[in-house]
Write a structure and sequence with these properties.
Layout lengths: L16 H97 L6 E10 L5 E9 L4
Antiparallel strand pairs: 1-2
Length: 147
């Protein structure tokens, strides 16, 4: 709102009380309009803040839900890995037993038929390291020390 009122002082130097009243009324109206504008802006700001807070709150709930879902997936995956490790361990044990009970005696027989005598047998050599530092288990070593 543009200020269209004039100062209460007249050019002649006499004071005009009517003009003063008009000036005060005009300033008062301008202040009321400013207050109304500020109130509207504050209400708009409050509304925006409430919407932002609600949005952030929803996003946090969604993030929490996703994190819980991820935690469940990690737990399931961890359980599966543990099961697989156990199965691998059982397979390793079974493979070792198979070698000890079936393959080694058969290999000794085959070598004998070919004229190679086995003079030494080493079993269950564990944690031998290769050149790169990898550990392994050797189930059997058959040696011919005569030839």
């Amino acid at each position: 709102m543009e200020n269209t009122t004039t100062s209460p002082e007249q050019p002649t130097g006499t004071f005009n009380w009517d003009k003063l009243g008009e000036y005060i009324a005009s300033v008062s109206e301008q202040m009321k309009e400013t207050d109304r504008r500020m109130e509207r802006r504050m209400q708009a700001t409050d509304r925006q803040m409430k919407e932002t807070i609600a949005s952030v709150s929803e996003q946090m709930k969604e993030t929490d839900r996703r994190m819980q879902e991820t935690d469940m997936q990690i737990k399931k995956l961890s359980e599966e890995v543990q099961k697989m490790m156990k199965r691998r361990s059982l397979l390793d044990n079974e493979w070792g037993r198979f070698l000890e009970e079936m393959c080694i005696p058969s290999c000794i027989e085959i070598f004998k038929r070919e004229g190679i005598g086995i003079t030494q047998r080493y079993s269950d050599i564990t944690h031998a390291k290769d050149d790169e530092g990898h550990e392994m288990e050797v189930d059997a070593i058959l040696c011919n020390t005569t030839e």
